[in-house]
Amino acid sequence: ETGVTQTPRHLVMGMTNKKSLKCEQHLGHNAMYWYKQSAKKPLELMFVYNFKEQTENNSVPSRFSPECPNSSHLFLHLHTLQPEDSALYLCASSQATDTQYFGPGTRLTVL
Amino acid sequence: EDQVTQSPEALRLQEGESSSLNCSYTVSGLRGLFWYRQDPGKGPEFLFTLYSAGEEKEKERLKATLTKKESFLHITAPKPEDSATYLCAVWGTGKLIFGQGTTLQVKP
Q: Which residues contact A21 (CB under 8 A, 6 or more apart)?
């Protein structure tokens, strides 16, 4: 596979569930990102990892927990989410501050 | 404060009717302006990166230009398959700042 992949593509979960989103990049980049995209709003940056180290946490609630085991993989662990957390979650990667390339996204619905 | 504003919010064109989308930005020291295309329910697809005023880039029916305060995405003779949301972004303080996007609909 090439580019940035994300799984699952769709996820429905209850407010008490625990689930994880996975992102993998095949571009040899050193930075990875999680974004949230809600209807009628600009993309919101959630987390940034450079060389596996978290360098940005954009005031995200603790019910979202990122993990970056290596420069190619990024996870977003979800627990006790709220209905307002329903959105499209996008992963991206870049080489330093160069162009970011996005994955297809995970459509999350919290019941 | 770093800011990106796109206009119009929505644009409806007839096939073949050329137009332009606008991206106005405020940032301390531009380190790159990016255009993306996003189809419903999918991730943004990279189109162009512009780094300095006066720079232009083209791809098929699309042409992006950059000045010190704004960028334009010109669409020449659009086709229905050009229908999508077009996003503009600039590097702000440590992160990419996105505009709200322009949703383009091209009717046959």
A: A6, A7, A8, A11, A75, A76, A78, A89, A91, A106, A108
